[in-house]
Amino acid sequence: MLNFINLISTWAIPAILAFIPLYAYAKKVPVYDSFVDGAKDGFSTAINIIPHLVGMMVAISIFRASGALDYMISWVTPWIKSWGVPGEVLPLGLLRPLTGTGSLAFTTDLIRTYGPDSMIGRIASTIQGSTDTTLYVLTVYFGAVGIRNGRYALKVGLFSDVVGFVAAIAICLLVF
Amino acid sequence: MIHLIWVALICIGFAFAAAQGNIEVVTKAAFDGAATGVTVCFGLISVLVFWMGMMRLAEDGGLLQKISKLLAPIVAFLFPDVPRNHPAMGYILSNMSANLLGLGNAATPMGIKAMQELQTLNPDKQTATPAMCTLLALNTASITLIPTTLIAIRLNYHSAHPAEIVGTTLVATAIATFAAIVADRWYRSRELRRPPANPPSQTALTPQPPQTTATPASSSTAPPVSSPAARRTGITAVQSRDTTWKG
């Protein structure tokens, strides 16, 4: 099973890369022109996202650097520890929707400190794998098409983050 | 809500730094954050340029349309207001499969492409459609089959069973995704019931005026969008209008 999964993850991208151009070529598409044409779109999309991402990153960076995030974490930690949950993983729940690289760094640090096969290491790995950087995803996807009013998307995203976080902890405590 | 969170993050940060007497931290953090934002975007350029080129090949070759026709029933359930043959379907599917395989970097360009296609169906270009919200919900819940990055990190720190978290991640991801879909549906139906200022998803069902002129009668059988080239010019028209509006 594990070998099979590894096989898929190493072969998936190369296989797609070979197949798509070949298929298009067989369909008599001017492949190189077509590729370059689409690639141009990618460039302008990346440039269009910059203002959105800068705005979001500035706010998150100020929030973290000021110590506000640390304070929130220290305030909630004893409360969650009383539920039998290792409090060390809690910051991850607050970091994860805000910053992808930040939470990955935090997870790596937890794994390094407590070991990958400790309960903390397992919970952190599961949380990291099962939730996503909601604010970043929202900024990038809506920023790319110029949506200003995201309606209820943020609420749904944050809600599913909370559910994912709680589910990850519960499953790990149950299984391991 | 995004406006509130943005202002709150900045103001709370400001207040905290001020209360602790190191207000100069805010200035540094602000510029650092701006730098990070640009760095991330530049990191995205290579991936976006490359994958969007590939995606255009898949689209022009007809591969995307084939896949989306095959899996249309599943996506039709999640995105009831997107026409079945619309190219957005194909991109939504590739976005979902890339997420499933844990190909994080490859999923983003496809998701953005899907958003751009959904935007062509959007009557109000500044407000998200329900379909866009569903796509975001799926992405923020991040349906993952194989968390490749995490397995790699665990391997790096000499885990005895680096992949033992695959099962737990799968369950947690499934629960989060389910919750996201339910919440999305709940908000969607609530918005439909409320008498809206701008018409809700019903408008997304009827194709856009400039597009209908091409195939008015046969739109049920033929793909709603006649040629990729025509649609592309449609998109650029929208984008240029957006930039002039931004000023």
UniProtKB/TrEMBL annotation, chain A:
A single GO cellular-component term on record: plasma membrane
Name of the protein in question: Spore maturation protein
Domain Nucleoside transporter/FeoB GTPase Gate stretches: 47-147
Keywords: Membrane, Transmembrane, Transmembrane helix
Transmembrane stretches, start-end: 42-63, 156-175
Species assigned in the record: Paenibacillus kribbensis
UniProt-listed Pfam families: Gate
Superkingdom as given in the UniProt entry: Bacteria
Record-linked InterPro entries: Gate_dom, SpmB
UniProtKB/TrEMBL annotation, chain B:
Keyword tags: Membrane, Transmembrane, Transmembrane helix
Chain residue ranges for the region called Disordered: 192-247
Organism: Paenibacillus kribbensis
Ranges of biased composition (kind: Polar residues): 236-247
Compositionally biased spans, kind Low complexity: 200-230
Transmembrane feature ranges: 29-51, 91-112, 133-153, 165-183
Keyword Membrane: yes
Limits of the Nucleoside transporter/FeoB GTPase Gate domain: 42-149
Lineage: Bacteria, Bacillati, Bacillota, Bacilli, Bacillales
Name of the protein this chain belongs to: Nucleoside recognition protein
